[in-house]
Amino acid sequence: MTGAYDIAIIGGGVVGTAIARELSRYSLKTVLIEARADLGDESSKGNSALMCSGVDVPAGTLERELVRRGYIRYCAEAPGMGLPIRKVGAIVLAWTQEQEAILNKDLVDAHADGFAAEALDSAEVYRRWPHFGPGIRGGLWLPDEAIVDPFSTPHAYALDALENGVEIRRSWPVRSADRMAQGWRLHGPDGSLDARCVVNAGGIRGDEVDKLAGYSDFAIRPRRGQYMILDKAARAIHDVIAMPAPTPTTRGILITPTIFGNVLVGPTAEDVPDRDDRRVTEAGLAQLRQAIATMAPALAHQPINTIFAGMRPATQFREYQIIPRLSQGWLTVGGIRSTGLSASLGIAEHVAGLLIPGLFDAPRKARTRQITVPDLSETSQRPWQDVSRVESDPAYAEMVCHCERISLGEIRDALASPLAPKTLNGLKRRTRAMFGRCQGFYCGARVQTLLNAQSSAH
Amino acid sequence: MAGDVSPRVLIVGAGPAGLAAAHALSRQGIGDILIIDRDDAPGGLPRFCHHPGFGLEYAHWPYSGPGFVKSLLRDLKGADVRIECRTTLLSLKDGPEAQVVGPSLGLRSIRPQAVIIATGIRESNRGNLAVPGGRAEAGILTTGQLQQLVARKVPLPQHVKSMIIIGTEHVAFSAIWTARMAGLRVKAMIGCEDRVMSFGPIGALARACGIAVMTNSRVREIETTHGAVTAAIVEGTYGTRRLPTDGLVFTANWIPETAALLGGPVAIDARTGGPQIDQAMRTSSAGIFAAGNVLHGVESSGWCAKEGHHAGEMVARYLRGEIGGVRNGAMVQIAEGIEFAVPQFWDCTLAHTAGMRDLPVNLRMKQDVEGRRIALKAGDTMIQSGARKRLLRSRRIVLRPGAIAVPSAVRIRLDVTD
To answer: How far, in Å, CA of B11 to CA of B288, rounded?
Structure first.
């Protein structure tokens, strides 16, 4: 497969897809390429799924600026794509005088920078959240912090980009890159493509992608985060983003509801040598259990649905590594460590601003096409709750995944959609099927059958 | 679909308990029965178990799983029973009022005179058990999932050729059977107890088939490479061992399926995780009965069918006005060493009901206990005691108290005695 493009974006995670969506607004020929069979299959699939206002990102950094901008844009644009947001708020907790001092300073800073924040004393914290563990001296209430759907977000961005003219290639790992008179030739599994400019949004492999072009400004220092997902009953007890006050050594483990109606505990923060080492360890689980025991002991006996680990693409630097080598036609968007989901639309805007009009004098398109993705959130109206929808299409009345109540119709729609999932995990992320407490005991075989039928039909 | 489709009796779950309940009801002359099941065919878990040993206590014949299902369905020929598959119970309220959704019923509330909950049970998976290690696209399973994959002819990935079975209860041997039928080599079975929890000779048979049976052992970590299982790291008195394998099957650690009951009026027993009932299978909400594995850690399909049959008879009595429709009587207190007992409540007034046959008390021990017996007492009076014997963990222990003719105010207690 060959082709000539203005821009090739390498990496179909939340950052790469956001950039693709942004660039689709301009009269440019853009291609998004992803090594894996499904989009959002690396760092974007294993994170805390928070939409952060930026209040807890160090001031004066590009990261702060882009998280803040990303948050504003996400709140404005996500609903139009069908993406859910629940502004549940965050409470940062202090057990020690040292932590209290940190929170007091954070409160002053937050107000100075125009963020919503409120100091709560111990009594008020326990009044609002009586299930919290003992010894809390006070907390910082951040009402704007939100939870979102981390899986549908990159999908929605990619679908939007596709609808607006971006070509998307999956299962297309870039094997090598040759410098051309104008731009780069990228070699993949079935040929090559030419692009005047390459945007490296390679995430956890961003340094390896840069090396293909001979750059080595940073190295990925993979930071593993282990998580535990508690069953839905836990949300009746705990429905707020809770985290300890950060100390100089650790940012701490948070306990948060998920948009799918569960409670998430994590992440640990471990520097690991192997960027694919997404192992859950006994030590990690012990840390998560300790966090529950300290913050919300009432959750200690709630059933666990699953455990997993995500990998943050940290580098030796604390700041994002956005390196525009415009004269060489290579723009690196690296080191988007743990705020990528929140910052994605801010990063995309920033990247577009670097390329246009600096490198491309491309006009903004007069019209863009709107897309919507299914709202998978627990608190939205599910298709089976809609009498008219169920009557007009009985497939929405037939549950396949019983724990999450995902219907045959929803799975069928995902498999028939543009950018249809290619793997079982891809299908899970697109529908929520098999996400629940039984993890496929009841529906695993049927879901696999549906996926296989689709694959063999193609 | 328009109009009221409320049946006289709604049975939730078309497994052995639900099907046998329908049979008992129709033999009692009760018609207009609707059975719903959320799967795409009736039968419950046995329909995926293609090996003998099903239905013994009920049909007195060691059917295969699907064979037993067929016989239960045969019993319903000509009965006024309608089975709607692909249909889910969403919630259950006092009334009883059931919200259901399915392709032929749509989304609707139905108000039957009685409901029998027979929603069964599932196994804990790796995530529920929080077993550390890597993740794999395929190969980390439960028995139920493996059996469905095989029964639905879903091929496992090429590289998956061997399995390790976690657990040593009866179901673990069902997993071994299924894995071997699917052409997988079963390398080991691993149990945390000091013995095989199923029948001893079956463990010996497994060993004879070349399966390493490792007791006092637990999986410390699942080793994966590039999304495929490569080994289980197992820990025991011998230290730590790395057992190469392409997959693991987690068996047992049963969890009753009560999703539709949560937040509703049917009280759940913290010990079993299922509805609390009295010996007439009545729950805490009038007209709502329960039977089968939703009540307890796993029982054989034959036992579940017997419970279903009993529930059917009790519902018939309720509909004829012979007994009330809500759980009644005193809560059975249980001794420290007992894990759970079903029924949880004993209604002494039922003893005066003509022709009443009670559900036996079915209990499980927390640990193996040597040379003791179970006694049912009302106050200080012994009602019934079992034989003095080894009381084994994870095995059914049954007492048949018959008619307890004592005032219901007296405390009823299950004890472990000499």
So the answer is: 10
